[in-house]
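User: Show me sequence and structure for the first protein, then do the same for the second.

Assistant: Starting with the first protein.
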Amino acid sequence: MGKFEKGFLIGAATAAHQVEGNNKNSDYWAMEHMKYTSFAEPSMDAVDHYNRYEEDIKMMAEAGLNAYRFSIEWARIEPVKGEFDEKEIEHYRKVLECCRNYGIEPVVTMLHFTSPKWLIEEGGWENEETIGLFANYCKYVVEKLGSYMHYICTINEANMGLQIAAISARYKAQMMEKMKQGAGADADKEAAKGTEGTVQVGLNMQKMMENMENQARENMEVFGVTTPQVFVSGRTPKGDILVMKAHQAAKKAIKEVNANLQVGLTLSLHDIQAKEGGEKRAEEEWDEEFLHYLPYIKEDDFFGLQNYTRSVMDADGICAVPQGAELTQMDYEIYPQALEACIRKVYKELNMPVIVTENGIAVADDTVRVDFINKATDGVANCIADGIPVKGYLYWSLMDNFEWQKGYSMTFGLIAVDRSTQKRTAKPSLKHLGGLIERS
């Protein structure tokens, strides 16, 4: 017997840049190929999902999954400002049709971190004009493809910029303290490792800081600015609200085309817990991560919740991971109970349907992944039993892929990919996830 009733969305998620390959008009492609890059390696062909999407969608369906969250790549649709590529629209039409043909509900994300390079050259995600440009892109896509969609996430992890700004500040403070103490390179590595494990995206903090001066010169050559404001840059408070305004403008544009489409965004959330003395810091962290966004999302149709682990706070801020705790390849603490806690906290403040748009684990041992999925989805089932309208659980990620600055070393996937041949091999966790839903 499945854990969830028929109609519940059980599936997996990807992001275009991480799986499609050869996203050559994007900001990330440019950054990956810079001499002083912070990326461990370039994305190149990725896992060639652009050409192999039917094979991947078929594998999902055969395993029992019924939903697929993927992103449409703005840099493909509008490679030059104001010029839309009909060939690329047709590509995503085929992906959407393929989902429908295999009984898979598409959950479409309009922006999953990557942007057209031209947008960054014009000021990127700190430029007010980006609000209208993003809305215009969303309107165009929905005019062409909206009839194939039901759920749309405008922006993935809209709060990521503030999280990165915060960990950058923490890392710099730690480095200043280490310098005072005369600590060496090993201390730098430990500080980088500790800060990277507190944000839910692949970063190379040490490399970023070491290359800062050289990167500034190269950024001027590549983007025309010393500090390009890509989506995953440290956000200013003004830029943080700009992202929210872009979401609202996009939602308005989408609804004007098709009022029946269900529109929301996703936020990266931690289960924020307080040790004695850390209660105030925990409240401040939850406000920055979630509460201050409420005025901008309270009229949405659903909320996309993304969670991987917890953050424990004391009077000084975020604590180190407990001694002896099991860690993922991303240096997150393995803590699947965090998902249930986040769902309950979110629903207390935001009375609307919730879709878990990302939750997953980067490990080599698939039995650990299966155990994580079991415990995380137990929490989802507990929430549903208590009347919280959780509509779906989408595991991150469908397949091992390009984890941003960390390259291909992180294995989150339900499907393994041999990148020398692009051969797919389903892990037992794929079928296990599909078995969590009622079939009759």
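Switching to the second protein now.
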Amino acid sequence: MASAGTNITTDQSALLSLRAHMVTSEPQQILANNWSAKSSVCEWIGVTCGSRHRRVIALDISNMGLSGTIPPQLGNLSFLFSLSLSKNNFRGELPDDLARLRRLRILDFGVNNISGELPSWFGSLQKLDYLFLRNNSFTGSIPHSFSNISNLKALFLSFNSLQGTIPKEIGNLRELEKFVAEYNQLSGSLPYELFNISTLEVIALSENSLSGSLPLNFCQRLPRLWWLSLSLNKLSGQIPSTLSQCSGLQALSLSTNEFTGTISKEIGNLTLLEKLYLGLNNFGGRIDPHSQF
């Protein structure tokens, strides 16, 4: 049943408010001409309406050369399950009103110039499957409330200015498949809880200031892992010989850290490996000439 007091006119007003907050930098003025009160919202470019309630359920205006800010009225699109404003030039902070988009499953603000701290209210969007915030100007730390997004499968935070530690509560994301937060300023050790998420396929945390060592038997708990990228950090200790148990690994990048010890010949058992980067560490010993690298 539709929310009391809201209808397609509510959705129309929200979208017209978004249009009004855009700078006239849209190259071809597509939205300026197409998003008009003279036509049905469901016929507007980038808008998809549901067949049952005829309310806006998806908005995709990505890669249209748009510029401007995101108005709080966007939070009135109460039936929205997919929102993509990626690859534009939206700026400013995200309004708290977006926390009311409780049906969202896909949220993509990637490749813009959105700033401010990562909002803790993301944790209230508990139906989210995919959250893309890469290539923006976000600051602050990763909120602990992210752990409330229990359905989350992909979290992309790369190319921002995030600081602080990776919260151990991330281990609560039991369906997470891709955790990508490269090119930030994250510090502290890798939380042990991260390596308990058995669904993880991609861990990409290169170009941060992470320290500490790799858990000894983490591969036993990550049977689906095929991409591990931790280069350009401050990680130390030895690379576990049990790394060979990550049998599905296709890419392993551990270069430019402070790892010591020897390179285990068991790495040669990673038969699916296509990319291997181990340079600029503090390894010793010699490479076994009989290794199957």
